[in-house]
Each structure stands twice: as C-alpha cells, then as structure tokens.
Amino acid sequence: MSRIVISEFMDEDAIRDELSGFDTLYDPSLVERPDALAAAVAGADAVIVRNRTQLRGALLAGARDLKVVGRLGVGLDNIDVEACESRGIAVYPATGANDVAVAEYVIATALLLLRGAYGATAEVAAGAWPRNALMGREVMGKRLGLVGFGAIARETARRAAAFGMRLSAYDPFLAVDDPAWRPEEYEVERSSLDDLIARSDVLSLHVPLTPETRGMVDAQAIARMPEGAILINAARGGVVDEAALAEALRDRRLGGAALDVYVREPVDAAAGAVFMNVPNLILTPHIAGVTQESNVRVSAVTARAVRRHLRGG
Q1: Catalytic residues
Q2: 99-283 — its CATH code?
Q3: Same fold: 3-97+293-310 with 99-283
Q4: Fewer Cβ in 10 A, N or C end of the chain?
Q5: What is the pLDDT of residues 51-90, one digit of tens each?
Q6: Would you give the distance in Å from CA 245 to the centre of its chain?
C-alpha cells in the first residue's frame, strides 16, 4: 500500500474522498518539526505540501522511495524540480485552482488602498469625524499594470475591467500573437516593463521567483512609479525590495502597498521590523490564494493528481 505524507494543512474531505485506500499520514504540524518531517518522508511514495515545506537538499534526498509530489498551490520555488525530474519524481501543482482567490485579493486591496477610508472605525466610534482626511480615490479610470499575464493576471484583469480600470500588461514569455492579448470581454495593452512601471496607478505582480525576477522591483523601479501609485505583491517574496518599498511609503512617494509574500517566511520580528510604522501598508501572511472555496478546489485537484499517478493513471 502506497504511503502518502501531507505536511501542511489541506481540506480533510479531499483526503477522505480522493485518498481512501492509501496509507495516509496527515499532520500539518510536520512543517514545524524538521526531524519528524524527515522521518515521515523517508519511506513515503508521495508527499503533498504547500509553500513552507522545503522539499530539496537532505529532505528530498532522504525520501528514497518518493514517486510523486503534490503541490497545494502553483509556485514551485520550494521544490527542487530539477532533482525530482532527474529521479523520475512527478510534480503536480494545483494549476488554476486558486486563481480566483488571488485575483479577488488584488482587486480588494487595490480598492482598499485607493479609497483609504476603511480604517476609521475607532476614530468614528470615539466621536471623531475625519471626513476631509479620508477623501480617497476611485478605482474607475485608473491604470492597472500587470507584471506577468498568466492565468491569475487574466482573472484579475477581468475583474478590474468590470470596475472600469484601464489595463496594461508585460509578459516576455507570451507571444505577440497569443490570443490572450485580445480577450473578448476587455482590452489590454501590451507594454514593456519600464513603461508599465512608469504609467501604472496600480502595479500588481504575477511572476514566479527566478534569477531574472529576483529584485525586479528594486529602489530604482519604485522611484519610477507614479507619485501616489499602489504596489501589490501576491506573487513571490524576493521580487520586491522590501526596504526600498517601506522607505517610499514612509516618504509618501507611493500611495500604498499590499504584500502577501516576503523574502523570509514566516516573517519574524527581525524581518518585520522594516515594516513597523509604515503608512498605507497591508501585510497578510501568504493567504491571497487561500479561501475556504479555493482550499477545497486546490486540495481536491492535488489529491486526485497524486492518486492517479500512484495508481498508474
């Protein structure tokens, strides 16, 4: 009987429905206990992870019987994909299953930061009436710049178009004649990265972390953004220079930012110090793609892929 180890949280109905008949160890605390995790995967035929389990190096080498990895999400930077390929280990990301959740996160944070009025509860309840201080901006007519124009960015574009935003995107891997540039329901302008950064009222990142994208939004790029612009990163930590972003927000050169991903995750007190007392900043703990609904979809897609692989299709 194949043994499956699940080291991070997952929808339990998907485990029951899709993985019945397998010897399955479901322990979301394993990601916090390296020694226990290493012992668990040592004899596993399959491992299912989210983004925190670093399936590489000694941990991957110790999984001698491993045949398949299920990724509860789409990013693969926590998995040594090349090492898996060299050993014939299949890797299945949950492509498409959390696109809607991330797209909604981007639109929600853009609305929140542009309007700037939704943190006034305590002041109003205390008897203050800060109307003039809370005169924010409408999203309609603003330009949304999408760095990367894959599936999640396109879902974001559909929602932004419904709000009347203008749309531009940069994606060097998408051919000029790709139909994605000519969707029926909205118009999107194909742009260079420099032009996108310089013209976007809201800049949203949709790229993986690679040598080419690491530090892509650095101090120089941030300085080229329009005054009052909003930056949203729900893609991968390391793409944005966090210290430079914090400085731009403190200086009020940018209108706001939302970060869901970070260079170091989880963010500890030392890493988080750069964000202390920074205005107009939303920080969330890598949950843009995690909703009750997306968790069900991601878990089912991943469990089904692992089951099919172990049973030979």
Answers
A1: 236, 265, 286
A2: 3.40.50.720
A3: yes
A4: C
A5: 999 999 999 999 999 999 999 999 899 999 999 999 999 9
A6: 18
